[in-house]
Design a protein that fits this description.
249 residues, mainly beta, Immunoglobulin-like, 2 domains, 17 strands
Length: 249
Amino acid sequence: MIHKLIVLVIVIASISEVSAQTSGTLQVTTTTKGTGGNYAPKNIVAIWVENENGQFVKTLVAYANARKTYLYTWKAATTNAGSMYNIVDAVTGATRNSHGTFSCSWNGTDYKGVEVSDGTYKLRFELTDKHSTGNLASYTFTKGNALQELSPADVPSFTSTTLKWEPVFRAGFGELSQRGGVEVSFDPTSGQLSVSGVKVRKLEIFNFAGQSVRISSSPVSNLNTLPDEIYIIVVKTDTKTFSSKILKM
């Protein structure tokens, strides 16, 4: 009984964070141009995420191994966070020999791997082709449960830039989640929930209040008879337990 209560408390805590921490991916593309520096077309560039208070969240791109010290703004942001030149999960490389289009992505977590709260964030760009300050760009976007696509105006050194935040689930759409080989999918049209990739020993569904509303050993369950709301899906195999969120509406 105590064990079941602990599980229920954990699930309730997870549910309380659903509206505040939406999983998703930010896809970014941009085309770079020089600043007229004496090392052009060679250049170094960094792209990173900050919160609305200007605090460093995560580096997405850092092409600047030997000359990274000249990316002054990125250096200051990571230093203020207590982790100078942090490149956890970032796309990295040496000084670029030319300009072109490239892409990167952000999974909504900080450099410690913790999913950050929903809200307003800034995508920061910095590029230089000289041993001094180069060009900077900053774009604001919203991390949340709504799809957002932005095509900001061209600025010096960064053109044809696009930002697309796509949440894991949003109103009228199902969630598709993959963790450790398990895939949980929900079709909002048919109301069918499916689990694949693992042998399901137990499938348990919790409602928004943290109450268990269905328990089964089948990898398939129809939710048409359940009220429209957010549900936590807990999948147990012989060795592991996975959880996922879906929105039924």
